[in-house]
Amino acid sequence: TLSFHHILFSFSLLIFLTLVTNLLLLIFSFKYILKPVIITLLLVSAIASYFMSTYGIMIDKTMIQNAVETNPGETLELLSPSLLFYFIFLGLLPALVVFKARIHFDTLPRELLSRLWVVLGSVALIAVILVVHYKDFVSLSREHRHLRHLINPINYVYSLSSYAGNTLYAADNTLHPIGTDAKVMLPASNNGKHNLLVLVVGETARAQNFSLNGYNRDTNPNLNKENIINFSNAWSCGTTTAVSVPCMFSHLDRAHYDDDTARHSENILDVIKHAGINVFWRENDSGCKGVCERVEQESMIHLHVSELCNDEECFDEILLDHLQDRIDTLDKDTIIVLHQKGSHGPAYGKRYPERFNVYTPTCNTNTLTDCSQQDVVNAYDNTILYTDYFLKQVITFLKKNSPQFNTAMIYASDHGESLGENNLYLHGLPYMFAPDEQKHIPFLMWLSQDIETNNAIDDSCLRTHSSNEYSHDHLFHSLLGLMNVQTSVYDPGLDIFHSCRTYDMEKIATTNMPAVDKPL
After folding, report:
1. pLDDT in tens, 484-506
2. Contacts 24+ apart (CB under 8 A), 251-256
């Protein structure tokens, strides 16, 4: 029950925020400047209000980064009649009122004097409010820090300025190399074949909706038939692609991850290249977020393959299109990264071919709040069904190439997704406040018998440890371990395979064995 004190504090908070906003606007309260600033704020605030109220998002620097770095197709999926309603009635109409209003400006000395009085009066009132409600403000700032991301327009103005500052810093092209001492060591049993690893980077898949993890729908009918090692307790580095993808390839763990540091440092793909291993990136999403800038890459987004693409995008099977042609030219160990479109929302129905529309009825609008939660879940589960099928195709592809290569597939989603739980949709909440649905990710692998034998990997040991807690932090070092790469930046404690090997890669390194030179 609300007490009189709570009501008084709520009213005081409203006055406090109004005074702070007014002080900020005073900076622009000059002729020819004030109107354009207010009109811009009204229009942008209307759009921000729509996304916050519809999807339950918070606007911070990461959300701004995600919006700026998205592609036009993803942006169009977010347009809806509801957004137009918000824009017209909360943005455009008030902006027209401001545009038509006549504002009288006095002489500069009088204007400066009046502003001084406004500043002094506002500061005095703010001081009184803080003194009276000091304990309330301290408690609010400590226990509900996320509220700062909900104050419109202060949230996006601050976040935009922060993102702009980071972007200017990022213009510095200084790149710090890591793992330049990397080299491929002799495996436990050299069968003369090169290693071929396909790393599938999933998009917006959450662990809860994988039947491999106990979901009550059979969303993994294909993977259930394969010799999959499923890590059921895996967690993402972030809640957006813009954070998670760079972080999962970075040598920095989540606790110490910093976008600026990662942007100016090499990543696991660079270290793999230093070791002489071939790296190739295929893209069917919104880009690699800088991760693949220094490796060979190919975008599959706008290809015109009739059975796999439409006028807007291609289904994930396009990532395997003519890939065999490239495999046939390989003459050394290789990692191929396939970046899925996966389960990217809100238009889940566009992510899979019609034959995968198994769970019905589905939500066929991008305004998810207009649908029942079950319809949203149905559409989302169909994307998981298609991902299951796609991963099966990857495994089949690798089996086909197993006579020539030691093959393996690793799959990990970049982050999860909210599907209406607690009135939250999509993803992107600050990690501290994000629900498990946005952080608990599917993480699994398929290993051929040859790659297990060559690396002395105990399959039963991996399965015994598969319920342990893992995260994107383990990917960097596990890739090094699986590809037999020795380097000073390798941490065996974060290598999933390390404790399940019958030999110690570090001991092999101390014997000064030469790098592997496998025959074709």
Report:
1. 999 999 999 999 999 999 875 55
2. 251/178, 251/179, 251/476, 251/489, 253/473, 253/494, 254/431, 254/471, 254/472, 254/473
